[in-house]
Amino acid sequence: MKKQYWKTILAAGFMAGAGICYSCGGGWISENISEVQTESLGEYVSAESEAQSQAPVYHYVHICGEVNAPGVYQVPEGSRIFQAVEQAGGFTDEAASEYLNLAEQTEDGMKICVPSAEEAKEAGLSPMGEETSGRVNINKAGAEELMTLTGIGEARAADIIRYREENGGFRTVEDIMKVPGIKEGAFEKIKDQISV
Predict the structure, then answer these.
(1) FRET partner for 50 with CA separation of 20 to 30 A, picked from 32, 44, 129, 131?
(2) Distance in angstroms (rounded) separating the CA atoms of residues 14 and 6
(3) pTM over 0.70
């Protein structure tokens, strides 16, 4: 019985000592693990934010008309129209590419309509780079330039800009009548002053 008693006391002493060692040492270990985890997490967050800042930015353009594969395409920010057309399979044989500014940068939500030679002629379009005899290009003009048109004030100029941003521009000069407040009478006054 005496032997049993000493074994029990000895076992209890070892357990108490192990518990004390575990409590003291375990706290130190968990503090160091926390520091390592925090440092690792900081490096991870830092690396993740660097990767996000270096990730390319994309936007979407809608290409229709005389291209081989019309549709909506994802292009890198800063892309040019010619690059978007390449993604759409290039021009068809009927395309009148000279009526587009192929070097123009694309914008998110932009609609690029590639006309056929017949459509361009019917719409009275001028090839890019040709003189438009002092006409205001309603697809490019700012509010101040639009306000030089007969009967177009600040509010109507803002409507024209809003329409072209929402609809991808005007395909023909007659399309300006789709802008709220510009009907046939107003169009007749400005039709010889505008181009697309």
Answers:
(1) 32
(2) 12
(3) no
